[in-house]
Prior knowledge:
Blueprint: H1 2-18, H2 26-29, E1 39-45, E2 54-64, H3 66-82, E3 87-93, E4 97-107, E5 110-121, E6 124-134, H4 139-148
Antiparallel strand pairs: 1-2, 2-6, 3-4, 4-5, 5-6
Amino acid sequence: MKQLLMTLLFLVTTGPMAAQQGLAINELFSGNIIPRERMVETRVRGRMLADYKMSLFRSVKCKVSREELEKINAALQKDMASYRTTESMADERHRRSSTLMVQLAAKGKTYCYICQKTEAEGKQWAVTVIYIESTVKSLSELRKMFNNK
């Protein structure tokens, strides 16, 4: 019984971490680009996401230097090239703020998205990166769903 409980605990805590395994952006989520102490991380999985047709929502928010931002952007660009981006939307305003939404190739009936919002704050940048697994089939549907909720 104790072994079963420990196994379940392990699966619950490592399941969300393994979701974006194989993606270059996982380096950010695992604390290899920005130390975990400097990040605010949110992980949601399960019934709380049912209204949004998602099975996983994972985000990281942090303030970074220009060099760290370039590492994050390089990882995202690598994933866009390696995982057959099917759609992307970008919005850049005065080089002070930008939003990028990327739909990666589907895993069966699960669609994977990476979203990045970047805002300049003096000599630093406030960055939010979100990884989503959903049954929503396109970025436009995903955006519409968020706007309606």
